[in-house]
Amino acid sequence: MLGICRGRRKFLAASLTVLFVPAITWIYLFAGSFEDGKPVSLSPLESQPHSPRYTASSQRERESLEVRMREVEEENRVLRKQLSLAQSRSPSHHRGNHSKTYSMEEGTGDSESLRAGIVAGNSSECGQQPAVEKCETIHVAIVCAGYNASRDVVTLVKSVLFHRRNPLHFHLIADAIAKQILATLFQTWMVPAVRVDFYDADELKSEVSWIPNKHYSGIYGLMKLVLTKTLPSNLERVIVLDTDITFATDIAELWAVFHKFKGQQVLGLVENQSDWYLGNLWKNHRPWPALGRGYNTGVILLLLDKLRKMKWEQMWRLTAERELMSMLSTSLADQDIFNAVIKQNPFLVYQLPCFWNVQLSDHTRSEQCYRDVSDLKVIHWNSPKKLRVKNKHVEFFRNLYLTFLEYDGNLLRRELFGCPSEADVNSENLQKQLSELDEDDLCYEFRRERFTVHRTHLYFLHYEYEPASDNTDVTLVAQLSMDRLQMLEAICKHWEGPISLALYLSDAEAQQFLRYAQGSEVLMSRHNVGYHIVYKEGQFYPVNLLRNVAMKHISTPYMFLSDIDFLPMYGLYEYLRKSVIQLDLANTKKALIVPAFETLRYRLSFPKSKAELLSMLDMGTLFTFRYHVWTKGHAPTNFAKWRTATTPYRVEWEADFEPYVVVRKDCPEYDRRFVGFGWNKVAHIMELDAQEYEFTVLPNAYMIHMPHAPSFDITKFRSNKQYRICLKTLKEEFQQDMSRHYGFAALKYLTAENNS
Q: How many H-runs (helices) and E-runs (strands) does the chain carry?
């Protein structure tokens, strides 16, 4: 264990003193009672004045020794009392493997002793802090705004969950964007013994907007100042973290430090590890006032109840107003104001050992916080350079961060045994649905997939788009996995409108995608593409779940339901917007069909017009989609009529019809029972027909399927007989459900299937 254990040290010293001081004293007295090799009797009966050996000198020596003996005995009595008290207070005394406490390193509120022996303190082996109850809830507050910060929060939360042994309650002060992303993430993550509450950061802007701030965090970098007002009034203490924090230990160890606060200490902070507040970084550098090096606010322990009683709101506001008269603005956001308050009121702060906030900005003293990397507790990437910061051990820190970045978050759904979780309606419903399934059913895994909750991270990259004001805007909707990533740039070049994509990836693949996207000029130039990560779980590709996720998160009134391996014709976006008006899609139930073609060539000179496409059809460079393997899928489009059509024309539904369509955003979702390959689009088109959608073919629109290696799912379909049997069973059950839901009108689907 790390840290200097003062309590244990006193215990040991007391023990040694009680054992050895009496022994040494008696040896001294016994040795001093010999004269000329003969023992000198200390008995008063033998020490009469008439004894020839008795002298005035020996009398004084005897009296002196007796006084010293009484002093030593008194000291021993006091030490025994201290030893007894120390034993009774020892947290580990009489506790075995079922202890409800954690061993923690001893922190210190003494800044001088901390500065004198940081490394020695970190490497101490002893340590037992006051107890953290086994099921005690630890409260964590984080300010988060925007798309990038939301990604950072996920990595921070992973590092906390990985080490934790206690229930957690996250208090997230978030803007509308971060709330949407993180609320969906935690709802689909379903981690036991984790509660999340959100507080509207936008409502707090007026509390701090009067403070000019030059820091890159903007107005949200000031919101930690108002946590006493924002968080529930009955919340007594909270750990406040920046989003760029990585934990390397159980957060309960930090929570236990609250027990060490004394007197009026209400803030737990680590000393700033750069020279910023010393004012010597460059000529004319003038920082805000601070105590010595100042304190870093990336990790804060707040005693909220005491802060409220001290009128913290009034305290920091008065300090900020006074300092802004000369400083004009903050450079490090809330940190400047916290330090100015501490400068005036040093008794407020309890100084944490610096391994609780190892700051990896350039030119810091962070290396003095640890003798070995195993001493680390919390790593703080507080430089704008983040992972590119200069540090002697940055490679180790980077690897630790990347470990959590790519760690499978599904593995963190572990129960805390012995700690009852709050009742969760969604979780209970899920367990009930799963319990109703027959595990001996050969199609059990197919049925189970329908109820699997996949962890979902919406808007993984920055998204910024306002739909056109004329209510004609159309979003292209598609889904993909890692093996189709190369299609993204081509689609972005063909479709200039908004796109909503659901990507089925592992945590590690999500980071590969992020690096790929950030390295692509084409993708980075587009802010109207919403990337929604659905994390891998189970053995099937949940194609219809992915489509539903992409459909649900569009901001336009219409959507083009496509697939990732199709390239739309150039100009299709504008053509569809005009067609929406022409065919009055807003007031009618129509599904506009975009005819689908395919090429077997990986290098294709893409046709720029219908005339050019028809020429390529005649030459055999292009084909109608799947005409040679699955004619029924697109035959009702009537390609012969389309060749000469100049106006939209209506077609009727037929069995196994699966065209690509443009519909209103309120159209029904895809049926989740269909996973992998087979019937996933067919079932959706069938339901559109059951709801009396009119299928209309667009005469001057087209899309072309690009060749690729067969997917894993189609390979399973072709090679696995049980897969095909289960798919047939699911089709029959779907048709029966349609009959129950839509009545007599749905009987035609059963008839059509039997005749096909």
A: 26, 25
